[in-house]
């Protein structure tokens, strides 16, 4: 399963 | 963090320093779209609201503060300090045609129906198209100062480098962010025409001129 996107990019 | 993203972010930083250098050295913001810069400030402010309640890393925090501060400073330079050098009559792209669809897209595509998440989605979609007033202006005038093209190239490189970053993250972290990836691909595609002229003309020492 794919991990849920976290907003850690800029 | 991987090297693609690091170099992407560094390229983004470089683009802002090149833009500041262009404005300060020519004492003019000629050739720069105020609308694009205002859209970028909107992008950073709506996306980085999490600055106040979410800690990712010192790197992330510092970059966010820098992007918000520098985009507001550029707006100040354009609106006040170098106001006479800005010609609104060639910066005519209708930004409402960008803002409206981005609001709709954010309402349709988001990870959670909450104010910060909707604003985050909105900022992602808006960033994808924020360069359009600038490219439109370039298209209208048909030429650009070399330093302005370096600014655009660094900005485009930042977006392009995020693509291998996402591929890398897919394999190493099993992570995919479909909203960011889709918007990012669109955003990078918008630069293709520009890159073609940049590589075939500017990097060969010629002036950036579009064929008539």
UniProtKB/TrEMBL annotation, chain B:
Domain of life from the UniProt record: Eukaryota
- Please classify the protein's predominant subcellular localization into one broad category: endoplasmic reticulum
| Any single Gene Ontology cellular-component annotation | endoplasmic reticulum membrane
* Keyword annotations of the record: Endoplasmic reticulum, ER-Golgi transport, Membrane, Protein transport, Receptor, Transmembrane, Transmembrane helix, Transport
Citing just one GO molecular function, the answer is:
ER retention sequence binding
Q: Name one GO biological process term.
A: vesicle-mediated transport
**PANTHER family assigned to the protein according to its UniProt record, in alphabetical order:** ER LUMEN PROTEIN RETAINING RECEPTOR
Question: Which protein is depicted?
Answer: ER lumen protein-retaining receptor
- Membrane topology annotation: Multi-pass membrane protein
Q: Where are the transmembrane segments?
A: 58-76, 97-113, 119-138, 179-199
Organism in which the protein naturally occurs: Lentinus brumalis
Annotated family: Belongs to the ERD2 family.
């Amino acid at each position: 399963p794919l991990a849920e996107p976290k907003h850690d990019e800029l | 963090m991987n090297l693609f993203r690091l170099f992407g972010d560094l390229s983004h930083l470089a683009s802002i320093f090149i833009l500041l250098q262009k404005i300060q050295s020519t004492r003019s913001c000629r050739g720069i779209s105020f609308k694009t810069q205002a859209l970028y400030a909107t992008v950073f402010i709506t996306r980085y609201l999490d600055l106040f309640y979410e800690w990712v890393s010192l790197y992330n925090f510092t970059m966010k503060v820098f992007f918000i501060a520098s985009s507001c400073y550029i707006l100040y330079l354009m609106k006040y300090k170098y106001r006479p050098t800005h010609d609104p009559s060639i910066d005519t792209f209708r930004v409402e045609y960008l803002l409206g669809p981005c609001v709709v897209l954010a309402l349709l595509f988001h990870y959670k129906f909450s104010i910060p998440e909707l604003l985050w989605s909105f900022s992602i979609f808006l960033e994808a198209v924020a360069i359009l007033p600038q490219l439109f202006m370039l298209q209208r005038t048909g030429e650009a100062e070399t330093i302005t093209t370096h600014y655009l190239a660094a900005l485009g490189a930042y977006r392009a480098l995020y693509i291998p970053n996402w591929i890398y993250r897919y394999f190493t972290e099993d992570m995919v962010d479909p909203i960011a990836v889709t918007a990012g691909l669109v955003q990078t595609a918008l630069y293709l025409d520009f890159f073609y002229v940049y590589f075939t003309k500017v990097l060969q020492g010629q002036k950036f001129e579009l064929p008539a």
